[in-house]
Design goal:
5-stranded antiparallel sheet; 11 helices; Uridine Diphospho-n-acetylenolpyruvylglucosamine Reductase, domain 2; Enolase-like, domain 1; alpha+beta; 272 residues
Length: 272
């Protein structure tokens, strides 16, 4: 049953400072921005939250820049803005490839990178890219700012180390050395939730990340180590299958996801 509008409350701060003050006084407020997932949850009655803080107009959380060779993407940067960014195209083309497959134009215009991270779905299209890119999540509260490695950000299914009163303000991506690779497998290339997706980097360091095969995005360190030391693709595939825990759901089966994950790994490693 859809949520009853009269039971909902919304705060709209005009600055990041005001937003952090509101969260400090009421940490249970749920941050929202593009609302591409929130509206769906409210419509189907699956969201328990009733008090929200709207961040959409906070200019401090927007913008894409490079500082000291680190790409900084504001949490409210939309997929459309990421796709259009020459800085992202030059440094993280696999992020643009992922952003292009997030829904249609309407979702890309409203959905934000920070929202995808905060939503914490293992099917989030950009999350394997951020894991493979060795990204960092910048969190801010009234108490100060801290930066968390993306690989240590999630603690379980839709759970993270973000504390009450904290906001995701930016995502930082250091320079990536090597060839970048991205693939999504779904009912359609876009406008469909992923059955499985993989992002990877082949360079001085091999990094492989997969979504929709576990409670969180999986950084396949064992499979990457096998390939980095010159092991066979068969051995790397075996290592990968020990690292992932796919499930049966309405979109696919455990067996299918495992098979596709192994095939994607081979496709990445043999790509020219």
């Amino acid at each position: 049953m859809p949520a009853v509008v009269s039971t909902l409350a919304l705060e709209r701060p005009r600055s990041l400072k005001a937003a952090l003050a509101l969260l400090a006084s009421e940490p249970a407020l749920t941050p929202i921005a593009g609302c591409t997932d929130v509206y769906v949850g409210l419509h189907f009655g699956t969201m328990r939250e009733r008090r929200f803080i709207d961040l959409w107009n906070l200019k401090e959380l927007r913008g894409i820049s490079v500082d000291r060779d680190v790409l900084r993407i504001g949490a409210l940067s939309t997929y459309t803005e990421i796709i259009a960014s020459k800085l992202v195209q030059k440094r993280v083309p696999m992020l643009i490839a992922a952003a292009r497959e997030v829904g249609g134009a309407q979702i890309q215009n409203r959905g934000t990178l920070g929202g995808n991270v905060a939503n914490a779905s293992p099917a989030g299209d950009t999350l394997p890219v951020l894991a493979a890119a060795n990204a960092r999540i910048v969190l801010r509260s009234q108490a100060g700012t801290r930066t968390v490695p993306f690989d240590g950000f999630y603690t379980g299914y839709r759970a993270s180390v973000r504390r009450p009163g904290e906001l995701i303000v930016a995502i930082e991506i250091p320079r990536i050395d090597g060839r970048q690779w991205w693939r999504k497998v779904g009912t359609r290339r876009a406008q469909a939730i992923s059955k499985i997706m993989m992002a990877a980097v082949r360079g001085p360091e091999v990094r492989i990340a997969i979504g929709s095969v576990g409670p969180t995005v999986i950084l396949a360190k064992s499979a990457a180590a096998v390939l980095a030391r010159g092991g066979s693709i068969v051995d790397a595939q075996a290592a990968l299958l020990n690292e992932i825990t796919p499930i049966d759901d309405v979109r696919s089966t455990r067996e299918y996801r495992a098979k596709v994950a192994a095939n994607l790994l081979e496709s990445f490693w043999t790509a020219k």
